[in-house]
Amino acid sequence: MSELVTGEAVALELRPAKLPSRTLAVLLDLVVLVTVYVVVTIGLVTATASLDEAAQVALSIACFLLVLVGGPIAVETLSHGRSLGKLACGLRVVRDDGGPIRFRHALVRGAVGVVELLMTFGIIACIASLVSARGRRLGDVFAGTLVVRERVPAGRTPFVPPPPPWLMGRFSGLDLSAVPDGLWLAIRQYLTRMQQLDPRIGGAMAERLATDLAARTGAPAPPGIPPAVFLAAVVQERQTREARRSFGGGAAVATHGVPDGPVFAMPGAVGPAPVQPGAHPYPAGPPGATQPRAAQPPQGVAPQPVPQPQPAPRPDQVDRPSTGFAPPA
């Protein structure tokens, strides 16, 4: 399993293709190429029967290079790494960073493949694939590519609990460039699975992650904020920056809202009372904040009764001008 971590701390799982599936894909490609090569060769021999022997040899070499070498290069370039054999076996050639290949990658793979696939009947390619941890042959090593499996079950991305509203934008000044991808991934995995952990173990894990994150950013966690809440707020700030960088300032505002879906309670963010459905798992204000009290009337003045809101009248109870028309009951 080869993992790449995106800006939202999501690991992209790249499953390298093993030797059996790659061998089957290469055999299918070779069958197609050899068939095309034989048909083209027969056509050239018939068309160039009147030429001398040197011209026929030159045309044969050109046909070999164009069909057996240039054919795979053109197919992988135009299909972005999916030849007929790889398409049938559910494989694809990608770069080491997971992106699609280009002409230079296909050219290096095709040039090296002449030696390790055609001239040595695939012996060098099999040995290199068995030795490599990700099943890469020499052409993949020199081109910086990787053959991965495309037909894998797509897992659902776990839901990350949002931070409380009063922490939105509080960490906008943090420098997150020194935080490694591994730490982001560990924080995200903790936030998505903290409800399944023992409270003591989860609390110790949150403190350790918060300490590592504070050491990377150079700013300690604010006092009075639980470590899990601090982690969620910093992850939200990173997602906001990624959204602003990718889609502009308007799309970043949408990340500050509480997404629809199940609501989770952060350890230490609320009291022992369970969170009711539809309620936010965090307090409405920062720790220590008190709710404003209602204004009291001066002494000696009788309190005025608070008018109660009256229900809106129904349409059939609204006074209408007399028109001589009585609506049906």
Task: Give an account of the 3D structure.
This protein has 329 residues and is mainly α. It has ten helices and four strands. The chain has helices at residues 19-47, 53-78, 84-89, 103-119, 123-131, 138-143, 181-193, 199-217, 227-247, 249-253, and strands at residues 2-5, 11-14, 91-95, 145-149. A two-stranded antiparallel ribbon has the order 1-2. Strands 3-4 form a two-stranded antiparallel sheet. The protein is elongated. The model is unreliable at 1-12, 250-285 and 315-329 (pLDDT under 50).
Question: What is this structure's SSE topology?
Answer:
Blueprint: E1 2-5, E2 11-14, H1 19-47, H2 53-78, H3 84-89, E3 91-95, H4 103-119, H5 123-131, H6 138-143, E4 145-149, H7 181-193, H8 199-217, H9 227-247, H10 249-253
Antiparallel strand pairs: 1-2, 3-4
Helix pairs in contact: 1-2, 2-4, 7-8, 7-9, 8-9
Query: What string, H for helix and E for strand, traces the elements in order?
Result: EEHHHEHHHEHHHH
Given as residue ranges, the uncertain stretches (5+ residues, pLDDT < 50) are 1-12, 250-285, 315-329
| Gyration radius over CA | 33 Å
Number of helices: 10
Percent helix range: 40-55%
**Biggest sheet, open or closed, and with what strands and sense?**
2 strands, antiparallel
Give me the secondary-structure category.
mainly alpha
Question: What is the average per-residue confidence, as pLDDT, rounded to a whole number?
Answer: 74
Would you count the extended β strands for me? 4
Report strand %. 5-15%
How far is the first residue's CA from the last residue's CA? 73 Å
